[in-house]
Amino acid sequence: MHRTLKIAEREYLETVRTKTFIFGILMAPIIVVAIIFFTGRMVKEKEGPRPPVKAAMTDLSGELAEEIKAAFEAYNKSHPQRQIDLQQVESDQAGLEQAAAEQKEKLRNRKLDVYFVVDKEVISGEGKVHFYMCGTKAATFDAPFTIENLLNNAVVNRRCKLRDLSPQLLAELRRRVPTEHIEVGLAGDKEQVQSQHRKVAQMMVPFFFMYLMFLGIFLAGQHMLTSIIEEKSSRVVEVLLSAVTPFELMAGKIAGLVGIGLTVISLWAVAAYGTARWKGLSVEVGAELMVYFVVYYILGFAFFSAIMAGIGSVCNTLKETQSLMMPISLIFVLPMISWFNLANHPDGTYARILSFVPPLTPMVMMLRLSASSHVWVVEVIASIVVLAAAVVGVMWCAAKVFRTGILMYGKRPAMREVLRWLKQS
Amino acid sequence: MDAVLLEQVCKSFGEVRAVDGLSVRVPAASIYGFLGPNGAGKTTTIRMIMNIIRPDSGRIAIFGDGANTGDRDRIGYMPEERGLYRKMTVSKVLGYFGAIKGMSKGRIAEKAPQWLERVGLGGWAGKKVEDLSRGMHQKLQFAVTVVNEPDLLVLDEPFSGLDPVNLDLLKEIILEMRDEGRTVIFSTHVMHEAERLCDFILLINKGRAVLDGGLDEIRSRQKGHAVSIEAEGDTGFIAALPMVAGVKREGRRLEIALSEGGDTQELLKALVGRVRIRAFEMKVPSLHEIFVKLVGADNAQDP
């Protein structure tokens, strides 16, 4: 025990001092902040001034042109930075083909962004509006949607006028019902009006927890791999094994790196929480979730790092480990790509099944626990028991592979050879 | 009590039988040399003594403990492949290995600087291991091995890569430790080192003990029936003497092989009066000669 703690202590202190560790601990938040910053900038840019969209229209109905022009004018007045220049191209059904050909040529020469033709029977609901564009540019990407809305308004206005309804009355009828979203919170006194931002933030919490779990396990696992490869290639391991058993060595390393992982995760969590508070977002997380997180993290990391220890012991260089790492990394992709589905159906069959696949249990369970309050306690306990059993099993195997592999240099042993080690008592 | 006891120990790697029924008794407070050509099974034997690998069959006892879970803290081990944490400082490495061998903080603080001083690395305590030269690295490795002042010292090829000054330093420390009642086992294929240091030797070839015992006993047992003389006068008659099997001339010296039952004193009597004798020497075989004779010249790797 004493030796295991000594090994853990060294592993922790020496890892904390490495450049990759400091780089890794800073990089993740920097990337997140950078993404938020640039998306913010891009949204602002999108709302900033842009050159007017050039649109042309042919009205075959003969009665909508005025209404449409009025709608565009009103829009241009209320959106000074997002003008749409509308030109009318006069044509009847017979001359349409020629007029349209002319406009299409303009589209191709980039003299025009959008050309649309309003069919004759649009008001009765039988005709269509045909949009013509040439390629999709980011700048005019949303123009058709805006124009569609304006056209709809114009058509509805026209229909009302035909039924002798005044536009004022119409505006009154169309007024939206104001809404308010209230989050009741976990305690009664925390009831508060929910902003849109907060809703998104609350929705992201499960993902955040899962991602934190993933990064924590994966990064610390990488340290495990490099640490073992380093000890193996520098041949320190034989001196170590003369003083400690392979199991003590492995356990010490895992303990030290669990410490590393928890340190990193706490720093990130504090940083994220601090940023959220600073930005005025209060996200509620139950205290029991923290306890679950620590339990799942320790078990999940023990499982993953035991596999890393096995892999590290049979390889001589980091490069050699890559082919063995591939399938393991792929398993972790599964919850990452389906997180939205999992968060929306935290009690679904898919989520339940993934909860009992040992390497994924911590990630999926954190996602479910933070997304739903209906996860059965029995299920939580069962998943912890299954994971713990898997940890014991994988540690037992890893210790055997580790014991033999760590002293082997040269060619990487074949899978069959490794299986033989496992069978040996 | 025997410090180390091996009984019929076997170990195979796949098809290769690395150690084949080896039995050795290493008495306490002695220096025991494991000799043999490369690939003879020395390192495998040493690793089994250290419980780094387990024997397929046979029994190993350390300090009389048959289960071989014996107190690892009492053993110092220097493997053939040297290695230390390159990024750590010299004093930290020494402290760390002391700590995992169960030394208290106070004892580390006392012993570590002493040993650094002893191996001549006193001024390097704060330097990183990667800044050390090869020779210094070697000496630090030795300090790591002995820092907890173990009762049993197991050194795998301790002399390779050392300059003569450091070689003498190492030998001096080894002899000192023996005199303090500690046991030293080391492997080497450099015969004259073993000759000067060992109380006992074990000669291994292809996983089997070829020779085992006290150095003096082995020498007398392996005594070649030969005499080397230097004489003035006509020495042509010597070859015809009854106790002489053969004569070989090497410059001014004559190497005389005696026949079965031939006595050196009889030879001396036969020579006196007929030639003027300047030197008369009974040949004691060197370890190197024994080694070559037993293992075969094609197997010997080192002069």
Question: Can you walk me through this structure?
Answer:
Chain A has 425 residues and is mainly alpha-helical. Chain A has helices spanning 2-17, 19-47, 65-78, 96-108, 143-162, 167-174, 196-233, 236-243, 246-278, 287-314, 318-337, 339-344, 349-355, 361-371, 377-405, 415-423; strands at 53-59, 84-88, 114-118, 129-132, 182-183, 192-193. In chain A, strands 2-1-3-4 form a four-stranded mixed β-sheet, with helices on both faces. Chain A has a two-stranded antiparallel ribbon with strand order 5-6. In chain A, a hairpin with an 8-residue loop joins β5 and β6. Chain B has nine helices and 13 strands. Chain B is elongated and about 75 Å long. The mean pLDDT of chain B is 84. The interface between A and B is medium-sized, with 21 and 28 residues.
Give me some keywords for this one:
heterodimer, A: mainly alpha, B: alpha/beta, six-stranded mixed beta sheet, 30% strand
Quick description:
The complex is a heterodimer of chains A (425) and B (303). Chain A is mainly alpha-helical and 425 residues long.
**Mean pLDDT score of chain B:** 84
- What is the number of strand segments of chain A? 6
Which class best fits the helix and strand makeup of chain B?
A: alpha/beta
Strand content of chain A: 5-15%
Q: Quote the average pLDDT of chain A.
A: 82
Largest sheet, strands/sense/barrel of chain B: 6 strands, mixed
Q: Return residue spans of chain B where pLDDT drops below 50 for at least 5 consecutive residues.
A: none
Strand line-up of the largest beta sheet of chain A:
2-1-3-4
Largest interface in this structure: A-B, 21 and 28 residues
Overall geometry of chain B = elongated
- Assembly of the depicted chains: heterodimer
Distance between the termini of chain A: 23 Å
Helicity level of chain B, as a percent range?
Answer: 25-40%
From the alpha carbons, calculate the radius of gyration of chain A and give it in angstroms.
Answer: 32 Å
Radius of gyration of chain B: 24 Å
